[in-house]
Amino acid sequence: MTPPILSVRNLRRHFTVRGPFNRRMGSIKAVDDVSFDLMPGEIFGLVGESGCGKSTLGKTIMGIHRPDAGEIWFGGQQIAHLPPVGARAVRRNLQYAYQDPGASLDPRWKIGRSLHEPLAIHSALAPTEREARIRDILKAVGLPETHLDLYPHEISGGQQRRVGLARILTLHPKVVILDEPTSGLDVSVQATVLSLFRGLRKTFQLTYVFISHDLAVVRMMCSRVAVMYLGRIVEMGPTDAIFDRPRHPYTRSLLAAIPKIGGARVTRDFWLQGEPPDPGNLPSGCRFRTRCPKAADVCAHQEPALSTAEHGSVACHFPE
To answer: How distant, in Å, are the alpha carbons of 74, 177, 207, 210, 240 from that of 5?
Structure first.
């Protein structure tokens, strides 16, 4: 059996909330006891409402945030608490594509210099070899070489997304974490970018973690999906099972909110009301119970564990 390329075990990332005089007032459990495996070559989706912890999970895996507890295994190596030198070596094979590609590019640098930088830091290639690789990658993402002499503000958002991908791919990574990769793009540009992701996955043998709130895109792109709510995974399984037979009430509410082509948003089956609880003051027991129509006494006293069920895993005392 093929081992996972990335394994996350009981990962936690909490942010301290401070008040007057820098006094500790509490903490926000952005990522709280998350575990999953990522198989080579798959596209693993992370979905949920804004603030559920999707991006924080991706950044903690990448090392942008240091975890408070838990383990991250990548290629058989524990990378959760590596020293800077060891972390730099890992980042060659584990890359993060930011939600705003323009923000990850220095506005004072031309595209060519931005693409040279990761190779200068992480490789021992000669300047001529770096130049050849950059031109090959630029061609792979569908951009002309003339873009090397442009600044980020001189190209469109979709082209900035391609430049961000090119910057990542120059290092030939194994896993790429895509954070909201289609946000802010026109529908036609989204289709082009998604097709590009698929083509690059085959060409460079990539594995993706696909973070998105666009459930229609997730269904089209991902082979497996994890649904997050307030820092925890509440349901996980194959994409078809999650979309066709959702077992957690939160998952069902998300799917009921997907707009339908040919009409306005269908609200007949959408029952989810209110805002998520304050992440700095979570309710006892199940975190979803304050918005769940099935909530019972046990939900207030015992937090459900993510347990294996038919066609996946679910964290609910009363799954469908």
So the answer is: 6, 13, 9, 15, 23
Residue 172 burial (C-beta neighbours within 10 Å; 0-12, 13-18, 19+) = middle
Q: Are 213 and 47 in contact (CB under 8 A)?
A: yes
Quote the CA–CA distance of 178 and 31 in Å, as a whole number.
Answer: 18
Model confidence over 77-109: pLDDT tens digits?
A: 999 988 877 887 888 899 999 888 777 788 999
3-state secondary structure of 27: strand
Dist CA 214 CA 222 (whole Å): 12
Joined together, the tokens standing for residue 308 give 């294996």
Distances (CA, A) of 174 to 24, 40, 42, 248, 299: 40, 9, 11, 32, 40
Give residue 320's pLDDT: 82
Q: What is the pLDDT of residue 6?
A: 96
Structure-block tokens of residue 11: 């990962």
In terms of Cα–Cα distance, which of 262, 224, 258, 228 is closest to 242? 224
pLDDT of residue 223: 95
Q: Report residue 106 as tokens.
A: 């220095």
Task: Tell me the helices (H) and strands (E) count for the chain, helix number first.
Answer: 10, 12
Q: What is the pTM of this model?
A: 0.90
Angle, alpha carbons 142-146-151 (nearest 5°): 100
Q: Of 169, 130, 164, nearest to 147 (Cα)?
A: 164
> pLDDT at residue 301 above 90?
yes
The partner residues of 71 in beta bridges, in order of sequence, read 9
- Write the DSSP assignment of 117-141 as a string of letters: HHHHHH----HHHHHHHHHHHHHHT
